[in-house]
Amino acid sequence: MVSALRGPFLSYTGNPFEADDPSCFHYESDGLILIDRGRIRSAGAYDPAVLPAGVVPVHYPDHLIIPGFIDAHVHYPQMPMIGAHGRQLLDWLNHYVFETEQRYSDIDFARIVAKAFLRESLRAGVTTPITYCTVHPESVDAYFEEASKLGLRTGAGKVMMDRNAPAGLRDTAQTGYDQSKRLAARWHGHGRLFYAVTPRFAPTSTEAQLELAGTLRREINGLYMQTHLSENRAELAWVADLFPASRDYLDVYDRFGLVGRRCLFGHAIHLSEREWARLAEAEATVVHCPTSNLFLGSGLFNLKRALVSANPVRTALGSDLGAGTNFSPLATLAEAYKIAQLRGDALSPHQAFYLATLGSARAIDQAEHIGRIAPGQDADLVVLDPKATPLLAARHGFVTSLEELLFVLMTLGSDRVVRATYVAGYKRHDRDDPAGVAA
Ligand code: GUN
Ligand code: ZN
Question: The Amidohydrolase-related domain covers which part of the protein (predicted)?
Answer without folding.
Answer: 65-425
